[in-house]
Amino acid sequence: MGTALIAVAGTLLGVIATHWFQGRAAERTAGLARAEQLRQERIATYSAFAGAVVDYRRSQHDRWFRAVRHPGSEEAEEARYASYHQRTAALQALFRVQLVCDDPATRRLAESALEVTNCLHEAVDEEDRARRSREAKEALDLFIASAAPGVH
Residue 133 needs a FRET pair 20 to 30 A away by CA distance; which of 11, 99, 116, 143 works? Predict the structure, then answer.
């Protein structure tokens, strides 16, 4: 009977240990899956934001050039409305960045990249437009450099 009790106790101890180790392994696996899902979401979100800002910058250039070459024309108005559409897309992408990014400095860099791009059409001459364009590109590059470590 003593041997049977030892066997039952050993079996129970084995079941408890197995359950505990399997639970820990399941938690670890779930945690890794969540981390990978967040990483993938950040990659997609940051890439979409960068693309939206690039498209917005292009539309701001188009808006500026059309306003300078043909002020008040239908062509200039179409470019202005197209830039509004691109700004909306960039804002939507920014909102997604704000939702998935847990680094306040990176969020501020994203906001700055959008704001600098937003001011591009206000350039007073070609030199000012080129400078603003460089600043917008540099601001986006800073955001990307800051966001990159969060997706590795």
Answer: 99
The CA distance from 60 to 88, in Å, is 13
Amino acid in the structure at residue 124: V
Q: Which fold is adopted by the domain 41-151? A: Four Helix Bundle (Hemerythrin (Met), subunit A) (1.20.120)
Give the Cα separation of 54 and 131 in Å (integer).
Answer: 16
Reduced to 3 states, what is the DSSP secondary structure of residue 145?
A: helix
Cα–Cα distance for residue pair 89/99, rounded to 1 Å:
16
The full set of domain ranges for the chain reads 41-151
86 in Cβ contact with 55 (< 8 Å): yes
pTM of the model: 0.82
- pLDDT per residue as tens digits for the range 41-63: 999 999 999 999 999 999 999 99
DSSP 8-state class, residue 149: G
Euclidean distance between CA atoms 113 and 110, whole angstroms: 5
How far apart are alpha carbons 91 and 140 in whole angstroms?
14
